[in-house]
Write a structure and sequence with these properties.
By secondary structure, this protein is α+β, with helices and mostly antiparallel strands. The protein is 42% helix and 13% strand. The chain is built from twelve helices and ten strands. The chain has a five-stranded antiparallel beta sheet with strand order 1-2-3-5-4.
Length: 364
């Protein structure tokens, strides 16, 4: 029996485990797709090992997940949502009745029911798909808006602390630990010239002008499951980063990851263009889904959120490049530098189209 299969046996699934295969695609947690042959037919579940390098307190990750999935489930029941079991992640209990399994060495594992009849995608191919994804994240934030206290645990402290990300970049430039500063001069200059962006949302949030609420913090289309038959967005997944934040960070993540018509690591940034109709679809879907839970100030700052998160991601890629690629997986030495260039190119396009994007959000 493999180590992962031995862990899978710690969970209360009726039946015999017939297969357990690694599931590639995740950047943080290791995952396996398991198939059990039970009294009611075959059942598929996703086994996951929580990465303690990224999530230093995995028990807090699980505590958050239990609270928010139960809360969303209660919302779905009150709303009489069809097929509620396909619209929120469901944890399979461990054999000792817990919500997860903890090994003697502190490693934490969980098992999730696989949501059948769904698909995911890495890229929004149409404006309609982008609008649907934005609506899914907007509904998710609205469902969590009345989550009772205390606040969720901060699973990655300072994750969207943009001033902190800027300071990390400045330290990396000063240290030049692996001798890469000389080869990244234009990118460093372009990032540091936009220092003001680091405080564009942070200052308003610190003054209480922006609502602090449970947010997803990794709002990309790959984290939405769509019904394979109807195309309807059913379920928001990858909930480990759900913690207190501001809605504009989630909207910014959506724009950053969906409006460009090229890959995040496109080696030729001149090939990147801004899909304005996709931006409009994202804004429309998000505003419609959140309704009155999104304040007039938040609506007016949607384009700013897009710029801030794109800047933040550029700073993170550039910092990792200058520190020797310690965080993001790379396939070649300049991989993170290429990612930086795509983000800076996208940021420039967002700035160039700022007036148009603001007209769009105002018209909604």
């Amino acid at each position: 029996m493999s180590p992962a299969a031995a862990i899978a046996d710690r969970f209360a699934v009726d039946g015999r485990l017939v297969s357990l295969e690694p599931k590639p695609g995740g950047h943080i947690n290791d995952s396996w797709l398991g198939v059990w042959d039970g009294p009611h037919g075959r059942r598929r579940c996703l086994l996951q090992h929580i990465n303690r390098f990224v999530f230093r307190r995995p028990e807090e990750v699980m505590a958050n997940m239990v609270r928010l999935t139960r809360h969303v489930s209660a919302h779905l029941t009150r709303e009489s949502a069809p097929e509620p079991e396909r619209r929120v992640l469901r944890l399979v209990p461990s054999r000792d009745g817990g919500t997860h399994h903890r090994e003697s060495d502190g490693e934490v594992w969980r098992l999730l029911d696989w949501i059948e009849g769904t698909r995911s995608t890495e890229r929004a191919t149409t404006s309609a798909e982008a609008r649907a994804a934005a609506g899914a994240f907007g509904r998710f934030l609205r469902q969590l808006a009345d989550l009772p206290g205390p606040p969720l645990h901060e699973t990655i402290p300072g994750f969207h602390d943009t001033p902190k990300r800027l300071r990390a970049l400045e330290r990396a430039v000063a240290a030049d630990a692996v001798g890469r500063v000389a080869g990244a001069g234009p990118e460093i200059e372009a990032a540091l010239d936009r220092r003001a962006l680091s405080r564009a949302l942070a200052d308003r949030a610190s003054r209480g002008e922006l609502v602090r609420r449970p947010t997803h913090n990794d709002a990309k289309i790959a984290n939405v499951l769509f019904d394979t038959s109807t195309g309807e967005p059913l379920c928001v997944v990858d909930l480990d980063t759900v913690m207190p934040g501001i809605a504009l960070h989630d909207f910014g993540d959506m724009v950053r990851s969906m409006v460009a018509d090229a890959a995040e690591d496109e080696p030729d940034p001149s090939r990147i263009t801004l899909r304005v109709p996709v931006f409009e679809a994202l804004a429309r879907g998000f505003i419609e889904a959140m309704g009155a839970d999104l304040s007039p100030l938040e609506r007016s700052l949607l384009p700013t959120g897009a710029c801030v998160i794109t800047f933040e991601q550029a700073a993170r890629f550039l910092t990792d490049h200058l520190e020797g690629d310690r965080y993001y997986p790379v396939t070649h030495p300049d991989h993170n530098l290429e990612r930086t260039r795509t983000q800076l190119r996208l940021l420039q396009l967002l700035e160039d189209h700022d007036a148009e994007l603001r007209r769009i959000t105002e018209s909604l």
